[in-house]
Design brief:
Distance between the termini: 48 Å
Number of strands: 7
Keywords: DNA damage, DNA recombination, DNA repair
Low-confidence stretches: 249-266
Number of helices: 7
Organism: Cohnella thailandensis
Order of helices and strands: EEEEEHHHHEEHHH
Strand content: 15-25%
Strand order of the largest sheet: 1-2-3-5-4
CATH class of the largest domain: Mainly Alpha
Function: Involved in DNA repair and RecF pathway recombination.
Mean pLDDT: 90
Family: Belongs to the RecO family.
Bound molecules: zinc ion
Helix content: 25-40%
Protein name: DNA repair protein RecO
Amino acid sequence: MLYRMEGIVIRGTDYGEGNKIITIFTPSHGKQGIVVKGARKPKSRYASLAQLFTYGDFSFYKSGNLGSLNAGEILESYRELRENLDRSAYAAYAAEMCDRVVGEEDASGYLFHQFKACLTALAEGKDPAIVIRIFEMKVVHAVGYAPMLDECAACGRTEGGFRFSAHLGGAICERCRHQDPGALELAPQTWKLLRIFSRIDLRQLGQIDVKPAIKAQLKTAMRRWMDHHLGMKLKSVHFLDQWEKLDELPLPVRRSPPGGQEEQSE
Ligand SMILES: [Zn+2]
């Protein structure tokens, strides 16, 4: 049967002589694997269509799980993401999250549009350290692990003085903080941004200017959250970490647990 759908390439694997199997993330049909014959041959019409991050219109035949490309055209190449190592590293991380963290049942139309908006924002040169944190928040929401940020995850109190605990489910109040001595102390601005990230639609993101110390806290909080709840080791994270070290961000404010052993989250 012949299918036709739009999608963004989130993975490409070499296959046989000059072929590629790509995975596209679609707004209508979750994720779909497609064999692109000859995609690695220099003269292939579909070499660029099959590249990572390409947003295209794909027509393919399908009988089993895997489709076989019949025709296609590029709607948006996101060339800016491939030409710039910094943007490329963040975009690869976002694509790998869609590929490996987001399950088939969670690959919704809404998340597709958040992913596309993430690529667009990165391509436009918006601050990747903010764009990617928002997208991480969209992913944890999509897979059912959104942190509680407005009330204590342990007792439900809404009065302030919160710390951030990945183990206990997000914000924890002063009375409950003894349950997780390693919970992070975050600046008011960091809390505010985490709450905004939870609610914002990435398509509506304007320019946003955040201090490096706050960005470092956001990263630590999201990384701890994702490590604890998703437990995925993504290849692209390691590369991104090496890349970000070049920025030499200041260390986030942390509270060491009583044994002095600080949780490694970097
Ligand atoms: Zn509490």
